[in-house]
């Protein structure tokens, strides 16, 4: 019971820590007259990936590569199938042309590149650095595009005194780091007690917990009719999870001995990403029926990985 409570506490610290970090960093940026669009595309984007980053980096440093990799793959699958699926069932989602032209294809490419890197069941420091460099190129491209198109958007950043902003940043970092440590340690304990592999718990419980910011943000945006924001949040988060979270983890602590199951899960994530792109390519939208299909696919795959974990598959 104690590990479960500590795991939940870890998730709370991760999510609230990320919130404090984003609020404090955004307020500092606003104080120095940085445009809201750049704050949104950099600080906020990184902030929503902070839970995944904290868990994966902590797991990599503890040599728990199964959780480090499966957390990213599981989060990306959850984002694509459950977040977009639930939002589409709630309300039909239109997909912006720029997402179809730039972000979705890039998401497919970086997922395919990651699966290629994992072919030897490892992720070296060099491969991590390559992914990180792609991340900085991606950030540069979207910031330049946003400035050119003057996509400033609504400035909803809360003004804060500099000293309070610094307190927010410090509290946020403490929450994210401490929360990540609690999640990794207690997820591993729960996995051992229930006979669950680290890969399974990373794909399910940890992935769900670290994806809560994306789920809440996208559902709220979709309910308000901002479906472009919801889909952009999901695809952007998936790109950040690979090019920032997984890349930083491998750059800090190279990964070896990744299970063959993780390679399969990565290939499935690639297939799902391609499928989602094809589903919305022609009509530039996700219908309620397509959203329901996405949810069913996620539930079926979850059943598969559960059966796989307990060696109950008939093949």
Layout of strands and helices, then pairs:
Blueprint (H helix, E strand, L loop, with lengths): L1 H30 L4 H13 L1 H12 L3 H26 L2 E2 L2 H21 L7 H25 L12 H33 L3 H13 L1 H12 L3 H26 L7 H22 L3 E2 L1 H22 L6
Antiparallel strand pairs: 1-2
Explain how this protein is built.
The chain is mainly alpha-helical and 315 residues long. The chain is built from 12 helices and 2 strands. Strands 1-2 form a two-stranded antiparallel sheet.
Please summarize what this structure is.
The protein has about 325 residues and is mainly alpha-helical.
Molecular shape: globular
Task: List the helices and strands in order.
Answer: HHHHEHHHHHHHEH
The largest sheet is:
2 strands, antiparallel
Measure the end-to-end span: 35 Å
| Poorly predicted ranges | none
Question: Which strand order do you get reading across the main beta sheet?
Answer: 1-2
The oligomeric status of these chains comes to: single chain
User: Got a strand count?
Assistant: 2
Portion of residues in beta strands equals under 5%
Structural class: mainly alpha
Mean pLDDT across all amino acids: 84
Helical proportion?
over 70%
What's the gyration radius in Å? 19 Å
Please count the helical segments: 12
Keywords summarizing the entry:
globular, single chain, two-stranded antiparallel ribbon, 315 residues, mainly alpha
